[in-house]
Specification:
Layout lengths: L5 E5 L24 H13 L3 E7 L19 H5 L4 H12 L3 E5 L9 H14 L4 E2 L10 E3 L2 E3 L23 H16 L6 H8 L8 H12 L7 E3 L9 E3 H7 L3 H7 L6 H8 L4 H7 L6 E4 L6 E5 L17 E5 L11 E9 L4 E9 L3 E9 L1
Parallel strand pairs: 1-2, 2-3, 3-4, 6-9, 9-11
Antiparallel strand pairs: 1-12, 5-6, 7-8, 10-11, 12-13, 13-14
Length: 378
C-alpha cells in the first residue's frame, strides 16, 4: 500500500443557495456548471492511495453574494439545503468516511458576522460534515492551518476591503467588501455578467483620487457601476447591529475612516499592501510570513493561481533549475468558480522523506496537470 504523503489544498468554491441559481432574469451564483467538475475531483482524491488530508482554505460557502434587494444570508442553512449542492456535501462526507482528514479554514465569503456567529457557523459545519476539523479562531472570524514550516489560510486578513472590520460597526465584523459583493450580485442578477469594478479600486489604491471623502466616493462610484444611486437602499435585515435597510451613501459613510482605522491596528500590514491584496496580489503579504520561520505559505482568496519560488538555497554543485531547492515557496490555490479566468486549480504538497524534500505543486483540473512545482529541503 502506498504511503499517504500528500495534502490537497482547495479554496473558493462559493456554493450558493437555491435562489442564486434561478434564471430570473439571470443567475448570480459563481459556481453552477463546475459543481459536477468538483464532484469528480473529490471522488478522485478519495480513491487516491497517497492523499492523507484535504484542506479547504475558505469560501466553500457564499453568504456574501446576495443582490442588494434580497434578504441577506446569515447562516449556511439555505446553502446546505440547496439540492444542487448535495453531491458536493455527500462527496466531502465520503472523503471523511474513507479515512482522509478533512480540514476547513473560513474565508471572507463564509466568515461570521459577529462573535456569537463564530461558534454558530463552526457548529453548522461540524453538523454537516461529522468528523471535520474546523480551524475557526474563537476571537476573530479567521483561521489558520499550521503544521511545521507550512502555513495555509484564506488570505483575506491581509486585504483592506475584505479583512474582518472591527471598527466601522461595534460587534460586527463585516468589511466594506461584503457590500461590494452585494452590488456585484445585484449587477449579475440584472445583466448576467460580472461587474467591472477593479479599476475603481485601482484608482483609489494608486492615489489617482485625493478628496477627503475618497473611500465613500469610491464605494458610491462602484455602486454607480452596478446601477445604484447614493440614495438606493441595500437590504441589511438580520445582520447583527444593522437596521433593516441602509442606503449606499450611509454605507459609504460608515467605512469612510477605513484606512485610518486599519493603520492604527497593531500588527497589520500597511494599507497599500493590503490594497494590493484586493487587486489580486497577496505575494507581499505572504512574504511577511516567511520572517516567522515558515518555508511554505499557501493562500486562496484572489482566485488567481500562482507560485513564487525563492531559490536562495545554494546546493553547492551546478544542477538544473527544476532540481534546485527553494528557501521559501508561496502558492495560491486559485478557485473553482464557473467564470474563472484560470480554470479549476488546487495546490498539492508531498513530503518525500528519503529525498528530504517537501514538494509544492500547483495543478489544474481536469487532468491534474502541473502548472508549477518547487520544493524545500526537509
Amino acid at each position: 500500500m502506498a504511503a499517504r504523503t500528500k495534502r490537497i489544498f482547495i479554496s473558493d468554491i462559493h456554493l450558493g443557495d437555491e435562489r442564486s441559481m434561478e434564471e430570473s432574469p439571470h443567475h448570480y451564483c459563481w459556481v453552477k456548471d463546475n459543481i459536477s467538475v468538483l464532484e469528480k475531483f473529490l471522488k478522485e482524491q478519495r480513491e487516491a492511495p497517497d492523499v492523507k488530508e484535504m484542506v479547504i482554505l475558505g469560501d466553500l460557502f457564499d453568504t456574501w453574494l446576495i443582490p442588494v434587494k434580497f434578504d441577506p444570508l446569515t447562516s449556511f442553512e439555505k446553502i446546505c439545503l440547496n439540492p444542487a449542492n448535495q453531491s458536493i456535501m455527500a462527496n466531502l462526507n465520503a472523503l471523511i468516511e474513507s479515512g482522509i482528514k478533512l480540514i476547513y479554514v473560513p474565508g471572507n465569503h463564509d466568515m461570521a458576522m459577529d462573535f456569537p456567529g463564530i461558534s454558530a457557523m463552526k457548529l453548522s459545519v461540524q453538523k454537516q460534515f461529522p468528523g471535520i476539523n474546523c480551524l475557526f479562531s474563537d476571537e476573530e472570524p479567521l483561521g489558520r492551518y499550521n503544521i511545521g514550516t507550512l502555513l495555509a489560510e484564506h488570505g483575506n486578513r491581509y486585504c483592506l476591503f475584505n479583512g474582518p472590520d472591527t471598527w466601522a460597526k461595534p460587534n460586527c465584523f463585516l468589511p466594506l467588501g461584503y457590500f461590494i459583493a452585494r452590488i456585484i450580485a445585484h449587477y449579475a442578477l440584472n445583466h448576467g455578467q460580472e461587474l467591472n469594478y477593479r479599476h475603481i479600486l485601482g484608482n483609489f489604491i494608486n492615489g489617482i483620487s485625493g478628496t477627503p471623502d475618497i473611500l465613500k466616493n469610491m464605494f458610491i462610484a462602484i455602486a454607480a457601476e452596478g446601477d445604484l444611486k447614493p440614495n438606493d437602499s441595500i437590504n441589511t435585515k438580520g445582520i447583527p447591529g444593522y437596521p433593516a435597510m441602509m442606503t449606499v451613501d450611509e454605507i459609504g459613510e460608515q467605512f469612510s475612516n477605513l484606512v485610518e482605522d486599519w493603520s492604527k491596528e497593531p500588527g497589520n500590514i500597511d494599507w497599500k499592501t493590503a490594497g494590493e491584496g484586493d487587486l489580486g496580489s497577496l505575494w507581499l503579504a505572504a512574504s511577511r510570513q516567511f520572517q516567522g520561520g515558515k518555508q511554505i505559505v499557501i493562500f486562496g482568496h484572489t482566485h488567481k493561481p500562482e507560485m513564487h519560488l525563492d531559490q536562495g538555497v545554494d546546493p553547492g554543485d551546478e544542477i538544473p533549475p527544476w532540481e534546485k531547492p527553494s528557501a521559501t515557496i508561496y502558492a495560491n490555490s486559485g478557485a473553482w468558480v464557473d467564470r474563472g479566468k484560470y480554470g479549476c486549480t488546487y495546490v498539492e504538497t508531498e513530503e518525500v522523506e528519503k529525498e528530504r524534500r517537501y514538494y509544492v505543486r500547483l495543478k489544474k483540473y481536469p487532468g491534474n496537470n502541473c502548472i508549477n512545482e518547487g520544493f524545500v529541503l526537509m
